[in-house]
Design goal:
- The complex is a heterodimer of chains A (478) and B (407).
- Chain A folds into 3 domains: 21-163, no CATH class; 173-254 and 437-477, no CATH class; 261-432, no CATH class.
- Helix content of chain A is 71%, strand content 1%.
- Chain A contains 20 helices and 2 strands.
- A two-stranded antiparallel ribbon of chain A has the order 1-2.
- Chain A is globular, with a radius of gyration of 24 Å.
- In chain B, α4 (128-140) packs parallel to α16 (371-386) and α9 (223-236) crosses α10.
- Chain B is elongated and about 90 Å long.
- Mean pLDDT of chain B is 85; it is low at 197-204.
- The chains are: A mainly alpha (478), B alpha/beta (407).
- At the A-B interface, α9 and α20 of A face α1, α2, α10 and α11 of B.
Chain lengths: 478, 407
């Protein structure tokens, strides 16, 4: 059930159906609460394993209540308490082993709950925010089964606006049709596309240690480098498609988490398109406050553009570190931070050297755009081995091919991704330019029905044929 | 956008969903699914069909076990292979050599086993017996003849059949008997005739037959009926076979899928075999004792080799497998059985660790080795037979070294 399986989709559809028996927000909230508790019960049977999570939620709620009552001086302490409790429950590797809980406990979705709790605390600390969050609303918001496993990270106001609305948002045939199509698309992405890409990745990985001729080994290394970002995209965005569609069928709009990330022409742009709710959260609660503090303290105009570089590094380093508790993910954070800060530094430097107008013109140049897009993809792909591998595995992979050959592989990835992604963008634009008066033919409801039917058939046949679970949702372990 | 704006837009979109769309959209969906399903099936039937038969070349109901019809020839195509000609000599064996006499001064090895040894799905010149002739002659500097006596179409060539038809092995005047077997031969050790043989090959039939069977068997829209329908569709369509063929080309998908099968199919890969597999091994032990006893009585050395299944070869090559599994385990067990009765055992399984993607040398769904698979087996066997395990075939040092370097 903690996967985008047929069971999960069926469960979600059944809940959506029952939720729509009445338009009353009390009924819909009751259904969502029962469904979320039932969902947790399906993930773990022993109630004892939920105790640490319950204590974590209680800690967050106690902090929220105190802040609502005007004890704003407690904001920092309550934030610290929640952050430390999170680090302790997630068993970060730098913690002494003796202080960790020995018995197994439930941590699925804890990272996403953590973001929601911090959001509630920070917003409560804000003088302008004085809305009371009842215990029921708090539990509904933090344990909502559609966003529990891997997000998206929704703001409380947005959740409350739809969930507790006296007049819930409309759910007509066109919306239902669109959400069903999105469900099928998500199911196909996770259970077929991601499964196939995962297989390509696993096969390429196995080949790296097999006695292959050099060209074949280089090709395996190339596939290993290229495939994982696409797998991750299919796996995560497919799951997000499913939960967004299920929530919409329950008359709640979840925020989008992806916006064609591989079309990004810079690493900064990439993070506006990939795991959008996570990067937005970090920009809101880390980048912006940090930038403000630094700008207040450093008034030099010459230095101010460089503050952005620093703040981006810190923000995305933390984004990387959030992904896990291992030293591999610490380096992942450094690489993410380096990517965005070098990108920002490049923008600042080029603007200074060329002037704003010329630099803007350069960014519109077709070859510059294609190469930037390719480089963005390549840098992201380069960080990915830290996502799936451990140091031992990465070291033996490095030895299996050697530094110079790996460099050649990554150069090939850059060039190929520049060409292929540019062709893709061109083809997409050409196809979308075929229009009727209602819009592009390819996004018409008729075209959507055609490809939803095709994807649905393929998904059903392949999952039935292989009868094996698709790879788990990668982001659920974070 | 405000809440009411959104609601108004939804309402407007729904007004646009005309009455025509309520009919048109489901029809488009149905048409898409039908076109895709029929189109895929037609493509699959053009490339993955089976043609021809070995019926005129096989005697299946012999009480001593199935065997080939002397001086016969048949053509047959497996769904995943090309059209293959099967020619049988006057002893009913698929060998280019005469069974009665061997060339002067030559050392004759008679191979026996099941369908993989017979070269099911490959041309005669590509089967490993034929390839071994050249390799062994080159390595030993002797004139080696490898005579293929295996016959197996429907789970024939089992240890029981080989034990019962042992005299067939003596007809070609062997200097050595090479018995190759795989996990299926261990599992079906005691099968003698087709009547004993419970598993029947998948019967891919015409579309009309599939539809008729569906109508007879399903009869309703209950979940059980739908389950039966899915089973029948998968058994009677070529699309599923074609999809499996391409999906199984992935090492990881194939191994993962194979390990999800029931114990009967994948139990031989477990580090602790089930009671059923222990019982299969006991049966195998009994027939191995008979075969090796007969060989000893005839004064002919017997060498046995375990040829891995596709999944087993893939797991060994990958060098990793889930807990509770051990692709080497079955090899160790049959080695103990063979050597306990005085036979010689050649272990080719470690050789698969040095081969990249050995599973590609098998037909992905059918599981028999293809022509490259036979070449792979021949190379591993040639190395095992000439490394001194069989004194009569010991290779000269320089030739062995050159061979190992692939020259």
């Amino acid at each position: 059930m903690d996967n985008a399986s047929f069971h999960f989709v069926s469960f979600g559809l059944a809940v959506a159906l029952v939720s729509n028996f009445s338009r009353s927000h009390t009924w819909r909230s009751m259904v969502l609460m029962i469904a979320s508790v039932a969902f947790l019960g399906m993930l773990a049977r022993d109630p004892i394993v939920f105790l640490p999570l319950a204590a974590f939620l209680l800690l967050g709620y106690a902090g929220r209540v105190m802040l609502e009552r005007g004890w704003s001086k407690l904001l920092v302490w309550s934030l610290l308490a929640v952050i430390l409790a999170y680090i302790w429950l997630k068993k970060y590797v730098f913690l002494p082993h003796d202080i960790l809980l020995r018995s197994p406990y439930f941590t699925v979705g804890l990272s996403y709950i953590f973001f929601r709790v911090l959001h509630l605390l920070i917003e409560a600390g804000d003088q302008n925010e004085n809305r009371h969050v009842s215990p029921g609303a708090y539990l509904l918001y933090t344990l909502n089964f559609t966003t529990l496993i891997s997000g998206p990270i929704q703001r409380y106001e947005d959740f409350a606006r739809d969930q507790f609305a006296e007049r819930p948002i409309e759910l007509g045939p066109s919306v239902i049709g669109f959400q069903l199509e999105r469900l099928i698309r998500g199911f196909f992405k996770v259970n077929v596309l991601a499964m196939l890409l995962h297989a390509v990745h696993e096969d390429a990985l196995a080949q790296m240690w097999q006695p292959l001729p050099l060209p074949a080994k280089l090709f395996s290394a190339f596939r290993l480098a290229v495939v994982y970002p696409f797998f991750l995209y299919a796996n995560f965005s497919g799951y997000i498609d499913i939960v967004i569609a299920l929530a919409r069928l329950m008359r709640v709009r979840l925020p989008e988490n992806f916006d064609r990330p591989f079309s990004a022409t810079s690493f900064l742009d990439f993070w506006n398109r990939w795991h959008i709710t996570l990067s937005t959260w970090f920009k809101t609660y880390v980048y912006n406050p940090l930038m403000l503090v630094l700008m207040r303290r450093i008034s030099s105009e010459a230095v101010q553009p460089l503050l952005g570089v620093f703040c981006f590094f810190v923000t995305f380093f933390l984004v990387g570190v959030w992904h896990g508790r291992t030293s591999e993910l610490l380096v992942f954070g450094v690489l993410l931070g380096t990517g965005v800060s070098v990108n920002k530094l490049w923008q600042v430097g080029m603007t200074r050297v060329l002037g704003r107008k010329s630099y803007k013109a350069l960014t519109k140049n077709f070859i510059y755009t294609a190469l930037s897009r390719g480089l963005t993809f390549t840098w992201f792909a380069l960080t990915n081995p830290l996502f799936w591998g451990d140091w031992e595995q990465l070291r033996s992979l490095a030895v299996a091919l050697g530094r110079v050959r790996w460099l050649a592989v990554w150069l090939a990835v850059w060039l190929c991704s520049s060409v292929v992604l540019a062709l893709w963008e061109g083809a997409r634009a050409a196809l979308l330019s075929i229009r009727t008066s209602e819009g592009p033919v390819l996004t018409s409801r008729y075209a959507r029905v055609v490809y939803a039917s095709a994807l649905g058939l393929a998904a059903v046949v392949i999952t039935a044929l292989l009868n094996q679970p698709a790879p788990g949702i990668v982001y659920k372990v974070f | 956008m405000t809440h009411s704006d959104a609601n108004d837009q939804v309402a407007a979109a729904d007004r646009k969903t005309s009455r025509r769309d309520w009919v048109l959209l489901p029809l488009i969906s149905l048409l898409t699914i039908s076109l895709l399903a029929i189109g895929t099936e037609l493509i699959a039937r053009s490339f993955f069909t089976s043609k021809g038969t070995l019926a005129a070349c096989e005697i299946l109901n012999d009480p001593l076990g199935q065997h080939g019809v002397p001086d016969s020839a048949c053509k047959a195509k497996l769904p995943e292979s090309s059209m293959i000609e099967y020619k049988f000599n006057r002893c009913g064996h698929r060998s280019g050599l005469e069974c009665g006499r061997k060339s002067d001064g030559s050392y004759r090895i008679v191979t026996t086993g099941a369908s993989a040894v017979m070269g099911f799905g490959v041309r005669q010149e590509d089967d490993f017996s034929e390839l071994l002739t050249t390799k062994l002659s080159r390595l030993t500097g002797r004139r080696i003849e490898v005579y293929n006596s295996a016959f197996a179409v429907h789970y024939g060539g089992t240890p029981r059949v080989i034990a019962q038809r042992f005299n067939d092995l003596l007809g070609p005047k062997p200097d050595m008997i090479l018995w190759s077997f795989g996990p299926n031969d261990v599992e079906f050790s005691s099968i003698l005739t087709v009547q004993d043989n419970i598993p029947i090959e998948k019967a891919h039939t015409s579309l009309m037959t599939t539809i008729l069977r569906l109508r007879e068997s399903v009869g309703g829209f209950t979940p059980q009926a739908m389950g039966r329908a899915a089973h029948i569709i998968s058994e009677h369509t070529f699309s599923t076979l074609m999809l499996q063929h391409y999906l199984y080309e992935s090492q990881s998908i194939y191994v993962e899928h194979f390990l999800m099968a029931d114990d009967e199919e994948q139990g031989f890969l477990k580090s602790e075999p089930s009671a059923e597999w222990r019982s299969h091994l006991q049966e195998f032990d009994g027939y191995a004792a008979q075969i090796e006893g007969r060989a000893k009585a005839a004064g002919i050395p017997l060498v046995a080799v375990f040829v891995p299944s596709r999944a087993q070869a893939a797991m060994i090559s990958m060098g990793k497998w889930p807990a509770g599994y051990d692709p080497y385990k079955m090899g160790e067990q049959v080695r103990r059985i063979i050597t306990s009765h005085g036979g010689t055992y050649i272990d080719i399984l470690p050789g698969y660790r040095t081969l990249p993607n050995p599973e590609r040398e098998y037909l992905p769904v059918d599981g028999h080795p293809n022509a490259d698979g036979h070449a792979m087996i021949a190379a591993l066997l040639a190395k095992g037979l000439t490394d001194g395990t069989v004194p009569a075939l010991k290779a000269a040092w320089a030739q062995q070294a050159a061979f190992e370097q692939g020259k």
